[in-house]
Amino acid sequence: MLLPLGLAAVAGADEFTGNIVVHGTSPARAAQIRAAAEQVRSAAFGLLLGNESPRRWIARCAIHVHATPDAFAAAVGLPPAGSRGATAINFSGNAVSSRRIDVMGDGPDVIPDALSHELVHVVLADHFVHAPPPRWADEGLALLFDGTAKQLGHEDDFRLAQRQGCSFTSPDLLALEDYPADTRRQRVFYGQSAALVRWLIARRDAVTFIRFVDDIDADGLATALKRHYDLDSIAFLDSAWKEVPPIHTLSLNNRK
Ligand SMILES: [Zn+2]
Predict the structure, then answer these.
(1) 3-state DSSP: the chain helix, strand, coil percent, rounded to 5?
(2) 119 Cα to the center of ligand 1, angstroms
(3) What are the domain boundaries of the chain?
(4) How far does the centroid of ligand 1 lie from the alpha carbon of residue 118, in Å?
(5) Which residue, of 86, 122, 162, 214, is most buried by count of CB atoms within 10 Å of its CB?
């Protein structure tokens, strides 16, 4: 992939021993981003995968920080479209062989706002090496690590769609294999996926939720629903739309 000019590697003491390497910003800011990313990585491994001492990433996660939408778009190979973060993961057999995150680094915050969300996708990839997680589960979990304002925006998108009668049915949401092409549908998808993941996690916990997702793949949805949530049919998931738990269900995020 062709990187935009100015993305020279930033050297730093921890860069060679940690799991993260940061490019595209000053050494001082890179060190702060690296430290924040290490914390999110540990939290995500612990909270989502029940792994309090994850193995070191030999293929360190490269985080590329971009100052402009054009630089971001050039790096990820998409037209500028308001996206704040992107993740690229490659596998070799049953192991992750490369990890890369591109984030917008503009604005007043030292830590890019999309960093935590994208890191969750990277952490989840370590678990879902045989097959990627379903889109709704992958995004729903990553959204739990976004800032509160962003999460509330996603919830508003979902509630608006619900009022307009254009939200997804549970079977449709769970069956989606790719992101909806239409931007408006995409926003509904994000908001509704987050709502469903929060509802399921509130019933048990995040580690159970991951086992549930594993078992959907292994044994089918009906068996997995019964086993982990004692639900007899996918129709029960519709309760999620009426009883969406609050944003901080997982206590993941105390940022604004
Ligand atoms: Zn995402």
Answers:
(1) 55, 10, 35
(2) 9
(3) 13-127, 147-245
(4) 6
(5) 122
